[in-house]
Amino acid sequence: MPAATSGRNLPYPLGTDRLMDGDDQIRKLAQSVDNMIQSGQVTIPITAVATPVSANVTFPIPFASPPAVLVGIVSGNPGTFTVAVAPSPTATGCVIWGRRETGTSSYPAVWLAIGPVVTVS
Fold this sequence. Notes:
Blueprint: E1 3-4, E2 11-12, H1 22-36, E3 37-44, E4 53-58, E5 68-73, E6 81-85, E7 93-100, E8 107-114
Antiparallel strand pairs: 1-2, 3-8, 4-7, 5-8, 6-7
């Protein structure tokens, strides 16, 4: 695909592209968008009350550059759990920090990474 949108760099075919290549062009667009947003779940391994611990996340598909990462807890009382992403995610992963104000059982956190669109070949 020789062209891309200016806002999100989404690839698209031009009117001069061969019609018989349309299925491949649509596949490339779909994969480019699919790779832009990734999500998952990680367990925060709490071992002591009010003690920050970290969990490493590796993105299923590396981004072209570091994405924006959002994180939240899966369930429980939001007042007793704290989660945060390390300030410097990389193109291949990030570190999620967690802390529990009461109890010492581990808890799950979900993450959402949104990165740049990269044209799939």
